[in-house]
Specification:
Blueprint lengths: L1 E3 L4 H10 L11 E7 L2 E12 L3 E8 L7 H14 L4 E7 L3 H10 L2 E6 L9 E7 L7
Parallel strand pairs: 4-5
Antiparallel strand pairs: 1-2, 2-3, 3-4, 5-7, 6-7
């Protein structure tokens, strides 16, 4: 089951899971929660949205079951068709090999490396996907 966040509970859950604050969400943002057996197992935040241009996606999950084809189709449809962005950006710590692998399997391309970007000194990759590269539309 997928629900939209109405009280920022999902945004707070995502940020807490990533060890972040919600401070980076200073402009409009939208969230989606992925539930299994009424338990939140994944959350997605669309933020820094520039319609016609791009947006950033931040995802946190406690279980890989959220990544069904149905859910992937919905999240890419929202980004590309409803929010009308031509590209999606993600930022992934170099040490987070599972997330990096998942994003690359979804079609995201590595575009850059931010050296020692994270507070702990970890590097972070910037990945991007254009609408015409999306396998789920």
């Amino acid at each position: 089951m997928v629900i939209l966040d109405q009280d920022n509970r999902i945004a707070q859950w995502v940020c807490q899971g990533l060890g972040e604050t919600t401070d980076f969400l200073d402009g409009p943002f939208y969230t989606i929660g992925f539930f299994q057996n009424e338990k939140l197992v994944g959350g997605l935040i669309y933020h820094d949205i520039r319609p016609g241009m791009d947006l950033w996606m931040t995802i946190y999950t406690s279980h890989p079951s959220w990544a069904t084809k149905k859910n992937l189709k919905q999240l890419f449809h929202i980004a590309f068709k409803i929010l009308k962005c031509r590209r999606i950006n993600v930022l992934i710590s170099r040490s987070n090999e599972k997330s990096l692998s998942l994003c690359q399997r979804l079609g995201f391309q590595k575009e850059g490396l931010l050296r020692k970007y994270r507070e702990d000194g970890d590097d972070a990759y910037i990945l991007g996907m254009f609408e015409n590269e999306c396998k789920y539309l």
